[in-house]
Amino acid sequence: MEIIEAMNSRKSIRAYKPDPVSREVLKEIMELALRAPSWGNTQPWQFAIVTGQELEQIRQAFVDRAEGLGNTDIPLPQGFPEPYSTRYRALGRKVFELKGINREDKEKRKWWLLQGLRLFEAPCAIYIYIDRSFHIQGDGLNVWPLFDCGLVAENIMLLAARHGLGTIAQIQAVMYPAVLRQVLGIPDSKLIVLGIAVGYPDWDDPVNQLHSEREPLDSVSTWHGF
Ligand SMILES: Cc1cc2nc3c(=O)[nH]c(=O)nc-3n(C[C@H](O)[C@H](O)[C@H](O)COP(=O)(O)O)c2cc1C
User: Fold this and answer.
1) Regions of the chain with pLDDT less than 70
2) Whose C-alpha lies nearest to ligand 1, atom 9?
3) Which pLDDT value is given to residue 1?
4) CATH number for 56
5) 170 alpha carbon to ligand 1 midpoint, in Å?
6) Ligand 1 — pocket residues by CB below 6 A?
7) How far apart are CA 107 and CA 98, in angstroms?
8) Which candidate, 160, 149, 159, 158, places its Cα nearest to that of 43?
9) Which residues pair with 125 in a beta bridge?
């Protein structure tokens, strides 16, 4: 698959078939994904690639904690100023529309939240983490390891698309890092950045029809010297 095809076909998948993803396919994806660039070739990323019993344990523990507040290692945004709030709300509206969830239906909204914490039932997850000491430095933050993780994450998702796999980058997947530390043996010296759910898409689920919008290029760019 050409890169353009992979970029066009990648989108966030929020419903999966239970079919397992083979270790060989994941290994192929991960080995190539490591070609991502990083600051000074520091390659700050580490991965836990999880399926089966361990992933079930994580799902269950996340659901058990769902009433409480999440506690991500990398803080969540404290607010969404415009225009970000409008874009964020539009996404939520579309997802609810496709799932037939009414805004007032608390039960269904809660069920959907739990689906997110369960990685939308994906059979596999890739957790990306970094060294705490490389990110938190003195009174400040070195944000570049996070930036580099974003680059490798996109590689993973594009390469997965090439194998007919669906993915979604998920902050919900790292909402309770203490659970991940315990199940996956990740020490406190690491910060868990992001989870990527991976699996074969359930194309019969209407939520996977979602095609998220983008601002036109003209509204986010200026051109100079042409
Ligand atoms: C860092 C990051 C975290 C995300 N976390 C979530 C999440 O917790 N739940 C979710 O449903 N989607 C999550 N997404 C997916 C975005 O909503 C999605 O990428 C965006 O709406 C664009 O849609 P697309 O991926 O289909 O192009 C996340 C994406 C990124 C990059």
Assistant:
1) 1
2) 170
3) 60
4) 3.40.109.10
5) 6
6) 11-12, 14, 91, 116, 168-172, 194, 212
7) 17
8) 149
9) 50, 197
